[in-house]
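Quick illustration for those who missed Monday's session on complexes.
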Amino acid sequence: MTNKVISHGAAKPHAGGSGPSGSGVSPGGGVPPRADTSLPSRAAAAAVLDIEAIRADFPILGREVRGGNPLIYLDSGATAQKPRQVLEAERDFYTTHNAAAHRGAHLLGEEATDAYEAARTRVAAFIGAEPAEIVFTKSATEAINLVAYAMSNAATSGKEAARFAVGPGDEILVTEMEHHANLVPWQQLCERTGATLRWFGVTPQGRLDTSAIGELINTRTRLVAVTGQSNVTGDVPDIGQIAATAHAVGALVVADGAQAVPHRAVDVRALGADFLAFSAHKMLGPSGVGVLWGRRELLEAMPPFITGGSMIEVVRMEGSTFLPPPERFEAGVPAAAQAVGLAAACDYLDGLGMASVEAHEHALTGHALEVVGGIDGVRIIGPLSTEHRGGAVSFVVDGIHPHDVGQVLDELGIAVRTGHHCAWPLHRALGVQASTRATFYVYNTHEEVDALADGIRQAQQFFDGTRGVVPLGRQSGAA
Amino acid sequence: MQLESMYQEIILDHYRRPHHAGLREPYDAQVHHVNPTCGDEVTLRVTLKDAGGEPAIADISYEALGCSISQASTSVMTDMIIGKTVSEGMQASAEFLRLMQSRGEGEPDEDLLGDAVAFEGVSRYPARIKCALLGWMAWKDATARALDGLGQDQSSGE
Ligand SMILES: Cc1ncc(COP(=O)(O)O)c(C=O)c1O
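Prediction with pyridoxal-5'-phosphate bound:
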């Protein structure tokens, strides 16, 4: 039994298959037609998700929070909740196979290594990559830093790495829309190397403004870093167009997939980018593991970032040589249990079908834009249409600071994010100090979107001086 | 209700009509503090005076962007501290910090804190404690700079 689990891929939980329980998916129509996205979807028809069956897989959704309200979790953009299949896969690894992967010669060491490598294969399949192109990191943040530091290390790493080296006169192009994780590492690379940082702006609607692409991408451009989906406005930039322009001048393209990979089918062969970074914890997987996908020939030529055990070939006191990728980029004992959990999350999502996941979020987003955007005194920070747009709905409420909006929602059991969501320059560009953000995932319902709108109205009442007159509470009928 | 205990009437009053707001001249030191998790910010000036050989606070002026808790807390702080000696102000500040760290279990010293006891409810919400402390920390920093004759805080962001 143990061997079966291992040989077949550690992603499988020990009981009942690893896909969603029950009939998580039911075929059928009723899904609004989806405008094509720039991140190409795997050819698969969207089915209507059975949200009740899905919710039953997430123990935390049964929790009651402040004042006995059932939890309404609208903060999956920060981190997603985990289905029991993922929890069980991790638990199974720890209870049955735990050892240091790629270290011991004993049986458990072998099993742990097999489980870890099977997870790599599973994740590769999820995004249409080869296993050797999947580098496990701590997070999307670390994956992006890996590329940025490899580029500054390239200056001292021999001829093979020369194409990654940047210096004065070279340009790194980012966007004003980036999460700090895909901005600050590039600012720092420029500071270390003397390269110049440039950026695409944003439109007043919170879309990426590529109107200056002809000037911004030029023969000095060495790398373009762009998000697959804004974590604030939901905008889905056209990475294909940006990558084609960048490649025409020989520049590399890093896509931040932290908000893209969890929410729709991403095929790296069709994406156009050279690197893709994402985090397990935002796609139903465990925290502590992320992924850097890179084109094989690029990873092969790229110098390491973090060095130490498990990534070396030969070590002498005078110096060391390194393993090929992906091991070259995975120093230290790997987070095998977390990788196994991520593989189980891929199973879960593929069990639902990424086209169905996308269609569900698309419908929730459209609903939210209507009922939240329709409240007097509420302004959506981002596109009002659902075209090329993911499920991050950020907004400001006139006269009420986002912290205070969030506090009232929290009191009602509704978890949202408040602040600048690690995208300070974007907020500045859109002329807002901070915002409140709701993000959706597979387990969210239309009733929860209505509860959000209702909660916002209650916050308005609370802060307009009539509090005490209007008792705070969930309206009946809300989830 | 928890929310009502946090947003006491006195807090909402200060939020809607903050006391001593606006930046005034002259001043002995100015600082700019931000709460990096939410972007709330305050620019705050302190003017010292001599009170029988002891340094005292002649004026605190400020410009703040932020939530009700951070705005109201800064406003209440200026009411309490202006006119006090620096050492009395530091004592009140230490007591306020203690209250904020009490997780709702504090028994605040009303003589020391005055209206600031209204923020007791905030201490139950760890995510909001930094909001309540923003103005106080700026005041402490500005006062220390004023005492050292340092004047303008050069490290401030925008
Ligand atoms: C668009 C985007 N990029 C990068 C990140 C960084 O992800 P992590 O914090 O998991 O490294 C996030 C999430 O916080 C994000 O939303």
